[in-house]
Amino acid sequence: MDVRALDAADELAEFANRFLPIGDPGVVAYLDGNSLGRPPTATLNRLHQLVTHEWGTRMIRSWEEGWMQLPEQVGDLLGSTALGAAPGQVIVADSTTICLHKVLRAAVAMRPGRPELVTDTDNFPTDRYVVQAIAAQLGLTVRWIESDPAGGVRPEQVAEVVGDVTAAVTFSHVAYRSAFIADMAAINDVAHAAGAVTVWDLCHSAGSIPVRLDATGTDFAVGCTYKFLNAGPGAPAFLYVRAEHHDELQTPLAGWIGNEDVFEMGPVYRPAKGIRRMLSGTPNVLGLAAVEEGVKLLAEAGIDRVRAKSTALTRLAIELADEWLPDFTVASPREDEIRGGHVTITHPDAENLAPLLIANGVIVDFRQPDGIRIGLSPLSTSFTGLHAAMARIRDLTAPQ
């Protein structure tokens, strides 16, 4: 295969120059963008301007000059660019864990008298922990779907467990181990037919594959911004609430920023109209600015072009693994349409091999019990870089 020709034909190739250079000359390729995206140069410039002018010069006046509107402004940009969400339904705030707690509690409150939550055994750990914590707090029961770590949850499995006692179902849209893409629309239909509401985790979806929240009838969703959206470590997360639910929406974590009149300072909390009521504390302005720059970069590239390149990169990774890594097993879907933005390869000694690869310039990550994830961020990863990294993996793991 001619990877140079693939790079020459790549419509997104120039975006690699829009990121800060990797200062470590020993890095062959950064293949962990599904855990932490690289920093865009525009983000560095924006943060410098924010600190020196908006904060340094305008100081507290900047709250009235734009800072206070950032959670909704950036949320709308994210919704239109990557999530298939009309304005007024996405807001940027808190961490994924806190956002998930908020929307799950809100979802349960919408279905009083229904004592069960449904999720799967291989959902991301924080999702499972939040579900268990809420169930314990509210005296609910968790119905577990036994999901395949090399795949994910399927609609027929959901249909077997939901019923008139189900309050909410929650799953990851893209499985964190395998990159399996769940059928969001079909699962929503199954849950809704049982009278339940749906809550989706989009951490491995947002910025990697097109998401159609409005079109699929999703009720709630959450996700992070530091992976394919390149907003930086610990950047604020986002949450989505379908517009038809806003009037009955109850936030479990009331705070002054979510009050109808932020500066009323009154004795009683009165929730703001719409999605803003899901805010709690003071917005993370520095983080919001970084999210905005990451989403702007994605908007310029276009989510459909990003998805096309992501599919080509993951397909190449699988082809090279098949050809060069006989002692590894590909543990991600081979069908393009159900594979997200990373490829997992398994090996009995993966826990020791992952640090070896990292020490030799191939930055990957390890996931228990035996998975090495190859994360392929389309805006910052080239075909030649992936080819060189896979060759290094081959050379380092070849039998001696």
Write up this protein:
This protein is α/β, with parallel strands linked by helices. The protein folds into 2 domains: 3-30 and 302-397, Aspartate Aminotransferase, domain 1 (Alpha-Beta Complex), CATH 3.90.1150; 47-299, Aspartate Aminotransferase, domain 2 (3-Layer(aba) Sandwich), CATH 3.40.640. Helix content is 37%, strand content 13%. It is built from 12 helices and 13 strands. It has helices at residues 3-8, 41-55, 70-83, 96-109, 125-138, 155-161, 184-193, 213-216, 285-301, 303-324, 350-359, 383-397, and strands at residues 29-30, 90-92, 116-120, 141-145, 166-172, 197-201, 220-223, 238-241, 329-330, 342-346, 362-363, 365-367, 371-375. The strands form 3 sheets. Strands 2-8-7-6-5-3-4 form a 7-stranded mixed β-sheet, sandwiched between helices. Strands 9-10-13-12 form a 4-stranded antiparallel β-sheet, with helices on one face. Helix 2 runs antiparallel to helix 9 (285-301), helix 4 packs parallel to helix 5 and helix 6 runs parallel beside helix 7 (184-193). The radius of gyration is 22 Å and the shape is globular. The chain starts with a helix and ends with a helix. The relative contact order is 0.17. The model has no long low-confidence stretch (mean pLDDT 97).
- SSE ordering: HEHHEHEHEHEHEHEEHHEEHEEEH
Cα-atom Rg, whole angstroms? Answer: 22 Å
Query: How would you sum up the global shape?
Result: globular
- How many helices in DSSP terms? 12
Uncertain ranges: none
Q: Which sequence of strands runs across the widest sheet? A: 2-8-7-6-5-3-4
**Span of the ends, CA to CA:** 27 Å
How would a textbook summarize the main sheet? Answer: 7 strands, mixed
CATH topology category name of the largest domain: Aspartate Aminotransferase, domain 2
Q: How many separate structural domains?
A: 2
Average predicted confidence as pLDDT: 97
CATH architecture of the largest domain: 3-Layer(aba) Sandwich
The CATH class designation of the largest domain is Alpha Beta
Helix fraction? 25-40%
The helix-and-strand class reads: alpha/beta
What's the number of extended β-strand segments?
13
CATH homologous superfamily name of the largest domain? Type I PLP-dependent aspartate aminotransferase-like (Major domain)
The proportion of residues in beta strands is 5-15%
Catalytic activity: L-kynurenine + H2O = anthranilate + L-alanine + H(+); 3-hydroxy-L-kynurenine + H2O = 3-hydroxyanthranilate + L-alanine + H(+)
Pfam family, one: Aminotran_5
InterPro entries: Aminotrans_V_dom, Kynureninase, PyrdxlP-dep_Trfase, PyrdxlP-dep_Trfase_major, PyrdxlP-dep_Trfase_small
Keywords: Hydrolase, Pyridine nucleotide biosynthesis, Pyridoxal phosphate
